Amino acid sequence: MTAIVDYGVGNLFSLSSSLRFLGVETEVVREAEALRRAERIILPGVGAFGDARAKLDETGLVPVLLEEAERKPLLGICLGMQLLFERSFEYGEHPGLGLVPGEVASLGEDLTDKTLKVPHMGWNSLEIVKDDPLFRYFRDGEYVYYVHSFYARNCRESTLGTSRYGDLAVTGAVRRGNVWGTQFHPEKSGDAGLRLLRAFAEL
Amino acid sequence: MLAKRIIPCLDVRDGRVVKGTNFRGLRDMADPVELARFYNASGADELVFYDITASAEGRGLFTDILRRVASEIFIPLTVGGGIRSLEDFDRVLKCGADKVSVNSGAIADPSVIAAAAKRYGDQCVVLSMDVKRVEGRFRLFAKGGREDTGIDAMEWAVRGAGDGAGEIVLNSIDTDGVKNGFDLEMLDALAARVHVPIVASGGAGNMEHFAELFTHPGVDAGLAASIFHSKQVDIRELKDDLRGRGVEMRI
Q1: Inter-chain residue contact B1 with A125, CB threshold 8 Å
Q2: Is B232 within a domain?
């Protein structure tokens, strides 16, 4: 069973539908017991980092997540990926889960070309920088769907793929041990995204 | 690099897709779920569903259709028509919408933009505007383009983006349904005022019009309905053509 962590942040309809579409047994969960029982875990999320972190803390699931990430695949999506890092500078400074080294910073501040729009919204091609089982059914350069104003940086060792936006190589996918993350939304990235989720479901 | 987006728009009434000329004389065209499948397979980058009669007649949204589409099509879905309150946002988001487009509802109560952006994030809130030239000015219209609000459209856009609208759909009533090309002058005026993604709507008649549209760097996406529904323009061919001209496209 694949557990989708429900901590009151974001829309889980598409994510659970896409997994169901792939024939993956899925549960939207709020209980520690379900996380322990799961074969793999997905941490979704949209919105602001600080708020999401607070809500995740409220569920009391953080210690279980950290524990389970040692022994089963965990995938953070969008803000869920950002939460995996050590800290974020979105409206102040907030601690992340510290599962992946690196930090989350403002895209707008780091882009040299100020005519580029923020959020970085739409389809961008993902250049694979490190091969990984997550890309088992994914081709280098395929387009994936992004919507975000903050991005992960100083995480080169964990970076699996990036997308070019102006002069920035935006962190698109990361991995450290059992922990994967995608800044883009695989559940909104058409066929390419479904293939990526399928690969995760087979890990 | 970020690709330009091609977005078919499904105007839905009574569970069917319709498309009129200058918002009048609606013609029945197809089943929305069937059409959504077809567009997904032909490479559409996003789908927009508008309940076009909701504003005027207070109809509820077609949440069943939306749920069916969202269960099998995994590209971004935007829903609009009759969105007035956070409850309306909530209802369509729960059925699988990713973005919610607000038009007349924001004119009636502008605070809905900020409230929705705060609860769901800027990326979720699309400000859709029907705009027409009146006495040499760009004027905002309400109720599906039937009512002149007297509001300056560009001021309205600036305010909306400031309140947290993460994207603006600009529909030119002057070019809508006429198929002579997008309203580039109006789009440029908007791009000069706001920094959020801009979706151009109204006027697409052929592939050339899209090529022309994307020479304007402030425009992020082109939206059209009838030329896609009637298969006058095939999305896959269009995207191949645009890519051939050097426009970044997701193929």
Answers
A1: yes
A2: yes
B134 to chain A, closest Cα gap in Å: 30
The complex's ipTM works out to 0.91
* C-alpha to C-alpha distances, A139 to A130, A196, B76, nearest whole angstrom: 12, 10, 21
Residue type, position B204, single letter: A
Max Cα separation, chain B? 47
Alpha-carbon gap: A69 to the closest alpha carbon of chain B (Å): 27
- Contact B176/B23 with Cβ under 8 angstroms? yes
* Domain of residue B122, CATH code: 3.20.20.70
Chain B residues touching residue A17 (CB < 8 angstroms): 70-72, 74, 96
Nearest-by-CA chain B residue for A164:
B1
Say if residues A100 and A176 touch (Cβ distance below 8 Å).
yes
CA distance B32 to chain A (A): 18
Cα–Cα distances in angstroms (integers) from residue B181 to residues A121, A161, B205, B224, in the given order: 25, 38, 6, 11
Rounded CA separation B39/A151 (Å): 31
Question: Does B112 fall in a domain?
Answer: yes
Q: How is B173-232 classified by DSSP, letter by letter?
A: TTTTTT-S---HHHHHHHHTT--S-EEEES---SHHHHHHHTTSTT--EEEESHHHHTTS
Position B250 in a domain: no
Nearest CB neighbour to B74, from listed A125, A164, A187:
A187
pLDDT tens-place values along chain B, 251 residues long: 899 999 999 988 877 787 644 444 445 557 788 889 989 999 999 999 988 765 444 354 478 888 999 999 999 999 998 899 999 998 888 888 999 999 999 999 999 999 999 888 888 999 999 999 999 999 999 987 889 999 999 999 999 999 999 999 999 999 998 899 999 999 999 999 999 999 999 999 999 999 999 999 999 999 998 899 888 999 999 999 999 999 999 99
Query: Looking at residue A79, which CATH number applies to its domain?
Result: 3.40.50.880
What the block records as the tokens of A37 is 């029982």
3-state secondary structure of A151: strand
Marked catalytic residue, from B45, B51, B88, B130: B130
Domain of A159? Answer: 2-201
